[in-house]
């Protein structure tokens, strides 16, 4: 998980904005957090955190649970999220994702890159009882996910990220690639076939197929990923699903603008 700590201090009102955003980002990654937990997440003092939380609660951005005395996101953040989906064109991506989920009976994600991580932005959940539960906002290393690898393979100038990786990659799951060299080799293979595969590299028992959402210059700014339990995602099925995921990603590329990235 990335830290929700705010940027270094800024003068005047800008600092307050940074602190408020830090609290909102911390709560976006947890169901609830107490003032003490929020202070730990953001690096603020408990007193400052308490004042910021009360101000945000007064505006309906967050809400205090009277039973646990912890805070969670408020209704106004849901309205902001819906507005952002509409403005960014993400609501237009959902029909294509739902159709892919209907055809395959598996879960479908739209993920983007934020720094060294892949972040789930939209999700259509499988209706089958055996499925991997995942939340919007979940984030994982680029090198261990189908979404991250396909964004790297088709992204603009991935060399900086690759050079910063250690030669031995930190294992995330049993199937995680062992070395940076293996990742670089896989990226070449991904460019050749048009989609990436995650064979229990990020979550044990889960396999994924991901295709790039490309901009007009041919660079990936997002990815469509099909996700299924390994028992239903055999190698022959991966080969059959690859073209379906590519087609869906191409359809989404027509409705999702290039600035969907959360990077800042």
UniProtKB/TrEMBL annotation:
Residues 14-75 form the HTH iclR-type domain. Residues 76-258 form the IclR-ED domain. Signal peptide: none annotated. InterPro entries: GAF-like_dom_sf, HTH_MetabolicPath_Reg, Tscrpt_reg_IclR_C, Tscrpt_reg_IclR_N, WH-like_DNA-bd_sf, WH_DNA-bd_sf. One of its GO terms (biological process) is negative regulation of DNA-templated transcription. PROSITE patterns: HTH_ICLR, ICLR_ED. Keywords: DNA-binding, Transcription, Transcription regulation. GO terms for molecular function: DNA binding; DNA-binding transcription factor activity. This is IclR family transcriptional regulator.
């Amino acid at each position: 998980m990335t830290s929700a700590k705010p940027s270094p201090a800024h003068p005047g009102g800008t600092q307050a904005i940074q602190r408020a955003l830090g609290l909102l980002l911390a709560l976006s990654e947890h169901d609830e957090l107490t003032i003490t937990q929020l202070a730990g997440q953001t690096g603020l003092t408990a007193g400052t955190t308490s004042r910021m939380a009360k101000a945000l609660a007064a505006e309906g951005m967050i809400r205090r649970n009277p039973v646990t005395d912890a805070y969670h996101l408020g209704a106004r953040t849901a309205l902001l999220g819906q507005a952002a989906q509409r403005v960014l064109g993400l609501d237009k991506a959902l029909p294509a994702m739902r159709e892919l989920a209907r055809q395959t009976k598996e879960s479908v994600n739209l993920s983007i890159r934020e720094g060294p991580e892949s972040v789930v932005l939209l999700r259509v959940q499988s209706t089958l009882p055996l499925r991997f539960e995942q939340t919007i906002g979940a984030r994982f290393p680029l090198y261990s996910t189908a979404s991250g690898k396909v964004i790297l393979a088709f992204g603009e100038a991935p060399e900086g990220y690759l050079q910063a990786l250690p030669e031995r990659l930190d294992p995330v799951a049993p199937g995680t690639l062992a070395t940076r060299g293996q990742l670089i080799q896989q990226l070449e293979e991904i460019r050749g076939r048009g989609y990436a595969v995650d064979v229990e590299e990020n979550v044990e028992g889960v396999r994924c197929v991901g295709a790039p959402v490309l901009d007009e210059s041919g660079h990936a700014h997002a990815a469509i990923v099909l996700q299924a339990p390994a028992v239903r995602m055999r190698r022959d099925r991966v080969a059959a699903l690859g073209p379906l995921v590519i087609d869906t990603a191409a359809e989404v590329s027509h409705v999702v603008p290039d600035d969907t990235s959360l990077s800042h």
